[in-house]
UniProtKB/TrEMBL annotation:
InterPro entries per the UniProt record, alphabetical: AAA+_ATPase, ABC_transporter-like_ATP-bd, ABC_transpr_TagH-like, Bact_Polysacc_Export_ATP-bd, P-loop_NTPase, Wzt_C
Domain of life per record: Bacteria
Record's protein name: Teichoic acids export ATP-binding protein TagH
Cellular compartments per GO CC: membrane
Region (Disordered): 273-298
Group of enzyme by EC: hydrolase
Domain ABC transporter positions: 39-259
Biological source species: Lacunisphaera limnophila
Amino acid sequence: MSPPSPSESPPLITLRGVTKTYTIWDDPTARLMAPFRRLWSKSARGTEGRQFTAVKAFSLEIARGECLGIIGRNGAGKSTLLQMIAGTVQPTSGTVQINGRVAALLELGSGFNPDFTGRENILMNASILGLGREEIAARYDSIVEYSGIAEFIDQPVRTYSSGMTLRLAFAVCAHVDADILIIDEALAVGDARFQFKCHATLEQMLKEGRTIIFVSHDTNAVKRMCRTAVLLERGEMLLKGSPNDVTNIYTKLITSPHGLESIREDLAALQNKPPESDEANPAPTPTPAPQLLSSSLSAENPGTRLLAEERTHQQISDKEYAYGGEFGEITSVVLADHTGAPRLSFVTGQTIQVRITCAARQTVTAPIYALTLKDVRGQEIYGTNTYFQNQNPPDVPAGGRATVTFTLPLNILPGVFFISLGWVRLVNGEVVVIHRRYDVLRFDVMPRDKSFGLAWCPATIEVHTATTSG
Ligand SMILES: Nc1ncnc2c1ncn2[C@@H]1O[C@H](COP(=O)(O)OP(=O)(O)OP(=O)(O)O)[C@@H](O)[C@H]1O
């Protein structure tokens, strides 16, 4: 029987007005003395230490079978939120209601006793997570085999590397029939092979209708795994939406010098945006006629008219998300075939050209031009830039223009794809955005043969058959 769809079943997790406030002590002695002082004097209550709210009035319902990604800057409150869902931290106010068994991979090894062996920790953890003696005995060998560290299973966990600790912790979580799995960045310490195995297990868990909540700074992992993502900032939920929208806004937040201010308008626009259709299965669209692009520039800006004249375009994708544009703008984007003829539909293996024009309002020194291809889920499938290719394009003077052509073979199998473009510069090792236009063009790739998968790696096959044995 297939698991019920998220909309059919009641929420597995309900958070209502969840707030966590910590008391911060500048003086460690005052912290130690505080309980005694409170005993001596009622008036001392609440007068020492500063209150710091790590998570503010957070409300959310998470359905069975949902995979929710939580992203946000360092200190945004992600781990605190996960700890409250996992039950290891109590909220100061608000309620957390959980209707199922929770397994959590929080701070690495936090559930383990470092002086116990791997074997003892498996037994202890599986028991804490709700398995009975017989169930643990029946699954023990499988847990050890999954972890791949059988050789070290009788060594104390304090002697394990972080990758080995992760292997053990994940192996336990994967075997306890959890309804909800919570993962806090932990997977990042696993080697590539184990990460692959973890992701396959997570996919399987989702198919079985389990719920996964995971925190990651890896926006691609969020887009690959999740259908919904939440952006946390200073303890508050700024946005809940498609992983592509949320990670686009997050990228702007972390690269803009104006921080939160820089995304206010975007948040307002997204809140008014109608719900998206199934992004993973968009209906094919006919190639539209050329049309004028909307602009991020204000009408008052003296450069606007000149730039607008150039802003003729093949197609705007309705997903475009742009920012920057103050010092210069990517004014035109044309997708063409290898002859230079504009097109939006190709066949696997064909060569494309992406031609962009960048107009500088102020001198742009040490410019970098970048291109990314994404699939319909926002997953980056290819990206490059002039910096990675060891090119040093010339500065663009105020009022000047640069035209840039990216030429690349479309070695990808059929689907719908989006092009994102960036014009940035590096200042003291930091990326300063001149203009970024994400998901600006949408194009289709049609099949050229019956090969399958993601990438087109045209294989030749040689078969030698012997006519006699021996
Ligand atoms: N026990 C604690 N006492 C005081 N402050 C705390 C405590 N735990 C967390 N904080 C503070 O709460 C804020 C949120 O911390 P949290 O670890 O939840 O952030 P995060 O989003 O997970 O960050 P990161 O991405 O760096 O892991 C931070 O400012 C942190 O210093």
